[in-house]
Design a protein that fits this description.
304 residues, mainly alpha, 11 helices, 81% helix, 0% strand, globular
């Protein structure tokens, strides 16, 4: 009975987190799409980030909730491959998009006179498409490499979703070194993006601190600090989860780190971006009030 109670508790906890992520990212997506004042490069990229967060959390939590509800930990081979592909695709695309968003902040603060030229509508669409395409290609490469390995160490992974390091532990072939090499190449590219993000923010902070107006500094920090907080949360959890030494590995720690980098950022991102952004708050309020108005009109029609 205690075990069943724990399973139900896990289910309701995961459901609450999932609904919070759906609501937050759904409101931001709707607000940006419907409010013409938010049709700017920064909010266009934020819309893409919200969509990626929706997909990322929808790849892992529904299956985890089903397993908690039905007291099982099973997933089919095809289901595991699909879950790994979509999660890696969305995760990679989000990292690429965060790199692009740091460039957006850099141009807005350091080169404001060239902002319209460097970040026109065509350039923004091209960069967003490049982020999504990079995610697809990266995920195809890793998924094909991982699932071409023979697995002879059983079929149980101590994780709540299919994750490459845990699948590699089941391999009995030296071919797994190929996937580790591919992971190393991906990590090198990710490090390059990290250096770019770091360089962008060094330049941003130097430019902001040289601003004579306190109001200008406040506006600049309000624009870029939410993105910096999101990047920090995303990278710190992901890097620690993938680069920590084996001596720090344990089932409980692996599960905790997986939750931190796969569940926490998509859930907290909407809150982080809306905390200091009055334009976004106003747009979200409009969406909520319009939803209430439409619901009231529907109820009136039904009662008639």
């Amino acid at each position: 009975m205690d075990g069943q109670g724990d399973k139900l508790l896990h289910f309701w906890l995961l459901l609450g987190i999932y609904l919070a992520a759906l609501l937050g990212n759904g409101l931001i997506s709707t607000a940006v799409a419907c409010d013409h004042r938010l049709h700017t490069p920064m909010y266009f990229f934020l819309l893409n980030l919200a969509l990626l967060d929706l997909g990322c959390i929808s790849t892992t939590l529904p299956k985890a909730m089903a397993n908690a509800l039905w007291h099982t930990r099973h997933i089919s081979y095809a289901g595991c491959a699909a879950q790994l592909f979509f999660f890696f695709f969305l995760f990679s695309a989000e990292y690429s998009l965060l790199t692009i968003m740091s460039y957006d902040c850099y141009v807005a603060i350091c080169k404001p006179l060239h902002y319209g030229t460097l970040l026109g509508s065509r350039a923004c669409a091209t960069m967003a498409a490049a982020a999504w395409s990079t995610g697809v290609l990266n995920s195809l490469l890793h998924t094909a490499s991982t699932f071409s390995l023979p697995l002879c160490q059983g079929n149980a992974i101590n994780q709540f979703f299919c994750e490459i390091p845990h699948i590699l532990k089941l391999s009995c072939s030296d071919a797994y070194l190929r996937e580790i090499w591919i992971l190393g190449v991906s990590a090198s590219l990710a490090s390059g993006c990290f250096v770019f993000i770091l360089f962008s923010y060094v330049q941003i902070f130097r430019a902001v601190l040289r601003m004579p107006s306190e109001q200008g500094r406040h506006k600049a920090f309000s624009t870029c600090l939410p993105h910096l907080a999101v990047v920090t949360l995303f990278l710190s959890t992901a890097f620690f989860a993938t680069l920590r030494p084996p001596s720090l590995s344990s089932q409980a720690l692996d599960l905790t780190m997986a939750v931190l980098y796969s569940v926490v950022p998509p859930t907290l991102n909407p809150l982080i971006y809306s905390m200091r952004n009055q334009e976004l708050k106003d747009a979200v309020r409009k969406v909520i009030s319009w939803t209430h108005f439409s619901r009231d009109k529907l109820l009136i029609c039904l009662y008639k």
